[in-house]
Amino acid sequence: MSGGRGAVADWGIAVGVAAALLIAGLSGQHPTPWPAPWGHVLLAAGGLALVARRRAPVAVLVVTGLCGWGYQAAGFDVPVVAYLFAVYAAVRAGHRLVAVVGSVVMVAALPLALLASPHHWPLGEAFTQSRDVLQVAWLVAAGAAGEALRQAERRADEAERTREETARRRAQEERLRIARELHDSLTHQISVIKVQAEVAVHLARKRGERVPEALLAILAAGREATRELRATLGALREGDEDPSHGLDQLPELVRRVRATGLDAELTIGGRPDDVPAAVGRTAYRIVQESLTNIARHAAATSASIRIDHRPDALVVRVDDDGRATPDSPPVPGVGLLGMRERVTALGGRLRAEPRGGGGFTVQAELPVGRTP
Q1: Does the pLDDT of residue 256 top 90, yes or no?
Q2: pLDDT, greater one: 230 or 316
Q3: CA distances from 9 to 81, 153, 264, 265, 365 (A)
């Protein structure tokens, strides 16, 4: 039950019980009129106290017991219904011993309240009347209902924990399987590329030739791919989502992109307060994927990356001067879909579209959970 519906139900039960007690008190016969106002207050208070039975079941048990004892002493021959609700709530919350002790005290104290009432019950009749006001069977039924529901909720919680543990175990097994597949299929190929690039660079330098920038970029990309793959494999095996990328690595990313011939410029605005690791990681991946798309598909000569630190959000914007136009937008691929999924998972917004003057813009707003 959600918090809103639970509060409405609590108030509904409390008001209903209070109204029932008041109606029972008004319809009864009283030997003298003077205790009635105080008795009505206690009748209403005992019922309305039930509104807090979830938050403070022990306190409600005490309050309803005292109110029941009080309006019986005031001369109101009304069953202590609110106290039964309080016993149920206390047992459901796990306070079984308190409920049992309180009920024993209540059963013993009710005859004293009747002896002190304006009815002037004889001793024997006071004990007989107290059984009508609070029957042991009612107490047992209330306690049994509370215990039954508590056990049902505990079993439901245990079942939920079991499902979560099973889901985590299956997710871990799937991560290990993916890690093995990545290791078997990619590690060897990337290693071959890196080794071949290193050999080519070594031979060129040995012959005294100028090493092409593209070859150096391939070598750097191979080394970075190897490092990222190792970090990703470690994260998959350990269940950690952080392969150690964030805003601090953006300058190095831009430097590597410049080595490929793309004129990339990084600008950081605002006050760089602490950014959650998930937000920083997502920002890095957005910039990385955007620059990869620019290099592969945009035929651009320059790109600008701007990171704006705002009080409530981190804004990432990547612009290029490529060939995309509003009349010929690029077909969204897996990269854009992945960016959108990352941003959506953080509750942010992503805009990816061609610019009016040519080129493409990717802008993401990532909430950081801060207030001005």
Answers
A1: no
A2: 316
A3: 17, 18, 60, 59, 40
Question: Strands, DSSP E only, in the chain?
Answer: 263-270, 302-309, 313-320, 349-354, 360-367
Residue of 122, 123, 24 whose CA lies nearest to 76 = 24
Using alpha carbons only, give the angle 21, 25, 28 rounded to the nearest 5 degrees: 140
How would you label 77-105 residue by residue, b for 16+ Cβ within 10 Å and e otherwise? bbbbbbbbbbbbbbbbbebbebbeebbee
pTM of the model: 0.44
Segment 7-11 mean pLDDT: 81
**DSSP strand pairing (302-309 vs 263-270):** parallel
> Could you tell me the sign of the dihedral formed by the alpha carbons of 251, 253, 254, 255, in that order?
positive
pLDDT, one tens digit per residue, over 72-102 is 777 777 777 888 888 888 888 888 888 888 8
Residue 314 confidence (pLDDT):
93
The Cα 108–Cα 228 span in angstroms is 74
For the sheet containing 360-367, what is the strand order?
263-270, 302-309, 313-320, 360-367, 349-354
Return the pLDDT at 366: 93
CB-side exposure of 257: number of CA atoms within 13 Å?
27
Count of beta carbons in the 10 Å neighbourhood of residue 117:
23
What's the half-sphere exposure (Cβ side, CA atoms, 13 Å) at 204?
A: 13
- How far does Cα 339 stand from its chain's mean position? 22
Coil, helix or strand at residue 354 = strand
342: which DSSP letter? H
CA dist., res. 88 & res. 11, Å (int): 16
Bridge partners for 264 per DSSP: 303
How confident is the model at residue 309, as a pLDDT?
Answer: 92
CA 135, 136, 140, 143 torsion: positive or negative? positive
- What is the C-alpha radius of gyration for the chain, rounded to an integer number of angstroms? 37
Following CA atoms 50, 53, 57, 59 in sequence, which dihedral angle do they give, to the nearest 10 degrees? -50
